[in-house]
Amino acid sequence: MHIPPFSLFSAVSELFVTAGVFWVIHRNWTRRPFPLPLFLAVALFEAFVNVMYMASRSSAAASDHSIAPNLRIFFALHGMLSLLAYLVFVILGVLAYQDQKEGRYWFRDRPAVTWTFIVVWIISVGSGEALFVARYLLPS
Amino acid sequence: MNGARAQRLRAPLLLTFAALLAFEALGGLVLFYARLAYGLLPGERSHVLAGIPLALFYAAYLWQHWRRVSPIRARLDYALGLIAAASLAASLALGGALGWLWWRSRGSGEPPHYPEVVSAAHNISSMLVLTFVLAHLLAVLARDREPTAGRQRDS
User: Fold this and answer.
1) Is residue A6 very low, low, confident or very high in pLDDT (cuts 50, 70, 90)?
2) Closest chain A residue to the Cα of B147, Cα to Cα
3) Which of A10, A52, A58 is most worth mutating to test chain B (most B CB atoms within 10 A of its CB)?
4) In Å, what is the CA distance from B61 to each residue of A58, B27, B56, B79?
5) Which of A36, A47, A63 sits opposite B124 (nearest CB)?
6) Among A22, A75, A129, A54, which residue's Cα sits nearest to residue B127?
7) CA gap A24, B75 in Å, rounded
């Protein structure tokens, strides 16, 4: 099956974005300087490339009546989770940056929240990659 | 939180703006999910109509806010606030375009055809609004905790 270039780019870049997200957390966790440029780059790239891709695919799927009902619900849940994960990442990143200026390490000080966020992020990215595989790589 | 900021956060203009924004955000999320999952648009009329007072209150609030915090400074809370302001302006403009299509289709018996690009751009800009308004607010509140907060004015 033909894979649209933007779909392929988004699926691959999402893995690099995930690496960036985890790197930001890792630096904070290990009490090293906060990578503000990386955080801003990841936040903006995720918004203008991957979330834009998700939003445009969602809009297209909303008017595509050939998609199975269960897959539509999966699309919707993935979309909502992606938005939530992105929003939480930016908020936590800002809190971590502010705290780190005062010598506190937000992610390390709140392991339960940090690990919950990591799990949510992995589910969000994993569901997106699963949709990509189901749509383009598996035989229909 | 310092006293002046606490007073500003209770101002009627800001509270009305925040209430309208929350209503539109919640309604937009319901529309996003229901349209995609079930092909339904619950509360579409309320979402469109509430966008009008939201735009007016936003313009009034932004004008007041900008007069107090200008000029731009090289700080994270300013950068987040600028992204939030630009995102909300874009979201309202794109929402206005979609609302115009909804208005024109009234009484025709046919559901409005929303262009995918405009709909997607409205969704993403709305998501950016939620993200960066919250991030801006948290960054500003966090500054109050800094040791130098007492020597700094406005944000």
Assistant:
1) confident
2) A102
3) A58
4) 32, 22, 9, 18
5) A47
6) A54
7) 20
ipTM score here? Answer: 0.77
Taking CB atoms and an 8 Å cut-off, how many pairs form between chains A and B? 90
Q: How many angstroms separate the CA atoms of A87 and A93, rounded?
A: 10
- Joined together, the tokens standing for residue B140 give 């500003």
Peptide bond into A111 cis (omega under 30): no
**How far apart are the C-alpha atoms of B46 and B50, rounded to whole Å?**
6
Q: How far is B94 from chain A (nearest CA, A)?
A: 14
DSSP secondary structure string, A25-72?
Answer: HHHHHTT----HHHHHHHHHHIIIIIIHHHHHHHHHHHT-TTS-HHHH
pLDDT digits (tens, 9 = 90+) for B29-49: 999 888 888 888 899 999 999
Residues of B in contact with A91 (CB under 8 A): 131, 134-135, 138
Amino acid at B49: L
Q: What is the mean pLDDT of residues B130-142?
A: 90
**Per-residue DSSP letters for chain B?**
--HHHHHHHT-HHHHHHHHHHHHHHHHHHHHHHHHHHHS--TTHHHHHHHHHHHHHHHHHHHHHHHHHH-S--SSHHHHHHHHHHHHHHHHHHHHHHHHHHHHHHTTSSS-----HHHHHHHHHHHHHHHHHHHHHHHHHHHHTTSTTGGG----
Tokens 């400074």: give the residue.
Answer: B73
Q: What pLDDT was estimated at residue B153?
A: 46
Q: Estimate the crossing angle of helix B116-143 against helix B12-38, to 10 degrees.
A: 140
Contacts of A106 in chain B (CB under 8 A): none
Going from the C-alpha of A90 to that of each of A75, B41, B56, B121, the distances in angstroms are 23, 29, 28, 19
| CB pair distance less than 8 Å for A58 and B32 | yes
Which residue's structure tokens are 């600028």?
A: B82
Question: Taking residues A66-89, what's their average pLDDT?
Answer: 85
